[in-house]
Amino acid sequence: MTTSELGTTAGSEVAAAARELLAALALEPAGRVTASVYETGRLVTHAPWLTGHDRRLAYLLGSQRRDGGWGAPGGYALVPTASAVEALLTTLRAGGGDAAPSPTELAGAAGRGLDALDGWLADGLPLPDTPAADLIVPALVERIDAHLEWFDERPGTGPDGWAGRRLPPVDRRRLDGLGALLASGRPVPQKLQHAFEVLGPAARGRPDVAPVAGAVGASPAATAAWVGDAPDAADPAVRAYLAEAVRPHGGPVPCCTPITVFERAWTLSSLARAGVPVRPAPKLVAELAGALGPQGTPTGPGLPADADTTSVTLYALARLGHPVDPASLLSYDVGSHFCTWRGEDGRSVTTNAHVLEALGWHARHTATGAARYGDRVAALAGWLHEQQRPDGRWADRWHASPYYATSCAVLALTGYAPAELAGPAVDRAVDWVVATQRPDGSWGRWSGTVEETAYALHVLLGTDRPARPGVPEAARRGLHQLATMDGRRDDPPLWHDKDLYAPVLIVRAAVLAARQLALTRSDLLGRGGAALDAPAPDDSMIRSA
Question: How many CB atoms lie within 10 A of CB 340?
């Protein structure tokens, strides 16, 4: 087979996989998200009446690490471990249940989790910048201590060695401030509704919180806490939402569902940006456009509209030939940059990279866009450039991996920043990617992953700049390893919510985009575009994930 024929075959494979991906978007509008230890633990506590309770307990036991914790390394373990321990203690207090797992298993896992938490909190393990972590951890520590006190008061009910045990104190300032706010009669802020369960029993039936499409803050945990221990009195739409939330994983649940707009916008924009030759059904595009309102669009029902989801939606629509004026983004402009939502604590590199793409496309392609958005595009490109780390990478608050943030920044600057600004920044980013490639050809923060390898390849292949030293070799090795790893299901979740998660189809789109970019860079890679001798990836994960 000739090089041209190899390239044609590989291109057909990418296009076919992308069509299958678009079909999955339409068939499963709620989206595919991995299960969360944190969120599942909250359902164990707040909704033992909900279908799948024993499977949720089994999931918690089965996902415990050898060191007694749950979740990703470092501070990322604090939130899921605290949730799992509190859930297991709640279950033990209730008698352990009538089915497996047994009280002995629950107590053993809880004890190991307590040991892990005790050490981390005593050492001052820092919390990562994940949503509501500074509320979640003190709230759960308080409840864990209350459980331990309950066992103290009833000798013989708890395992030996728990007598007098309490966790080290944690910073409660944000939690106490929230309590004072609500005690004054103020309503629950909308942005807090996604973590509404931090209120504990006080969350039940609060009249200032109303489910949207059956959900409180697009969160199973928040919704279950609002229902409390009176599920029969809950609105049928709420019960239907919770039943649907547990269905995909048979009991365990994700942190956020549904993610319809988020999943479709990210998937379609990734495919379109890379030039994957597919066209979504008109109904899919119309539904995406219909999600936009005067303030843009939220990620899920009951969440506030945000600049991130709004800008990616606008960019996807523009690249698909259905541009919508991005004026809704201007309400997020805070002068130096764009906030993800009004009142945001912190700032996001990737949100601003996505805003740059949305505004930049209109400034370049529409008659009024240059006049309305041109100056803002230039200023935002400058801000994004200033956020680059000295070693060439970017980091962000919505993803654990710098490869994601770096790819977002590089693609936005390459597309819409002045060349004299984008060029040096992109070169530094490319050098950092080359320097951090793993010996097997992959990339990753904790280990080599399919997702992060795809983002690294976006950086190496997604620009038209002259090749930097080592780039062709790094890209070829990365593409071969991408194909070798593709289809495996043991990669860690990397996206920030209350717990780390993976949006399965969005990650799949990133991988397909990397494969497509390789086909278009024959000038860099040779042999018709890309490691065409690599094994073909297994796209069955789209069907079965």
Answer: 26
Nearest to 224 by CA among 208, 207, 242: 242
Return the exposure string of 418-429: e unless at least 16 CB atoms fall within 10 Å of the residue's CB, then b: eeeebbebbebb
Question: For 422-443, what is each residue's pLDDT tens digit?
Answer: 999 999 999 999 999 999 999 9
Residue 496, strand partner residues: 500
Q: Which residues of 247-280 are buried (b: 16+ CB within 10 A; e: fewer)?
A: ebbebbbbbbbbbbbbbbbbbbbbbbbbebebeb
User: CB count, 10 Å around CB of 293?
Assistant: 11
Distance between CA atoms of residues 110 and 112, nearest Å: 6
> DSSP for 61-118?
HHT--TTS--SSSGGGGHHHHHHHHHHHHHHHHTT--SSSSPHHHHHHHHHHHHHHHH
498, 78 Cβ separation under 8 angstroms: no
Distance from C-alpha of 135 to C-alpha of 192, rounded to nearest angstrom: 10
pLDDT value at residue 467? 83
The band of 524, judged by pLDDT with boundaries at 50, 70 and 90, is confident
Distance CA 116, CA 111 (A): 9
CB 121: neighbour CB atoms within 10 A? 17
Q: Residue 361: name the closest of 326, 337, 385 by CA.
A: 326
Rounded Cα gap, residues 475 and 371, in angstroms: 39
> Does the predicted TM-score (pTM) go above 0.90?
yes
pLDDT in tens, 1-17: 444 544 566 778 999 99
**Amino acid at the residue 248:** P
**Does 258 sit behind a cis peptide bond, omega within 30 degrees of 0 on the bond before it?**
yes
pLDDT at position 541 over 50: no
pLDDT recorded at residue 465: 83
What is the DSSP code string of 25-67? HHH-TT--B---HHHHHHHHHH-TTSTTHHHHHHHHHHT--TT
Task: Using alpha carbons, list the distances in angstroms from residue 448 to 178, 293, 436, 442, 462.
Answer: 40, 40, 11, 5, 20
Instruction: Please give the average per-residue pLDDT across 163-167, as a whole number.
Output: 92
In a 13 Å sphere around the CA of 464, the CA atoms on its Cβ side amount to 4
374 closest CA partner among 392, 361, 389: 361
544 pLDDT above the threshold of 50: no
